[in-house]
Design brief:
about 180 residues; alpha+beta; Beta-Lactamase; two-stranded antiparallel sheet; about 25% strand; globular
Length: about 180
């Protein structure tokens, strides 16, 4: 279950994915989701592991207190989390569905939880070359006391669609409070 704003942008993305094809950058109009626009961003893809920030809304810039354009989006995450996020982004290109990373945002003043959406956008004939994204805080941003985000620590990365749900899932069964499988 994702935050309602995250669901809104996923639903918008799906409405643009006509005939099972990925939405193109040209089919995305920020005016259609104006209340969320300050929280959105667009990340490009040069090659696996290089995802430069192309556009960033006002909330995104304010959270980092700097211009993120041309910065590799992976550099915003802890070193330990970069490879996992890279793998998830590449999977989202192969089986085009949005992914949502639930992260901890660390600053010198504290931390908050946030969802970060990455929804692939069609580009050249070799596959998706951009991602439409959203920063959705899960608690009060005021807890950061105006300090810039230093890094994101990934808690979980989840698919937001059926294309990536074909993999087997671990299930836990319990009987009278005891795990049995």
């Amino acid at each position: 279950m994702f935050h309602s704003s995250t669901h809104k942008l996923i639903d918008y993305w799906r409405a643009r994915a006509l005939d099972g094809r990925l939405p193109t950058r040209a089919s995305i109009d920020p005016a259609d989701f104006a209340p969320l626009a300050p929280q959105t961003f667009v990340v490009g893809r040069v090659c696996s592991g290089i995802y430069p920030v192309r556009l960033a809304g006002a909330f995104v810039r304010d959270l980092h207190q700097r211009d993120l354009r041309r910065q590799n989006a992976l550099s915003l995450f802890s070193h330990a989390d970069r490879l996992g996020l890279q793998a998830a982004l590449e999977m989202a290109r192969r089986k085009p569905e949005p992914i949502v990373a639930t992260v901890g945002v660390r600053t010198d003043a504290g931390a908050i939880g946030m969802e970060i959406l990455f929804a692939p956008l069609a580009g050249a004939e070799d596959g998706p070359d951009r991602f439409l994204g959203l920063y959705q805080p899960l608690s009060m941003v005021a807890r950061l006391r105006g300090q810039p985000a230093r890094e994101f620590n990934v808690q979980i990365i989840r698919s937001a669609g059926p294309a990536n749900e074909l993999a087997p899932r671990i299930r836990l069964a319990a009987l009278d409070g005891r795990r049995i499988a």
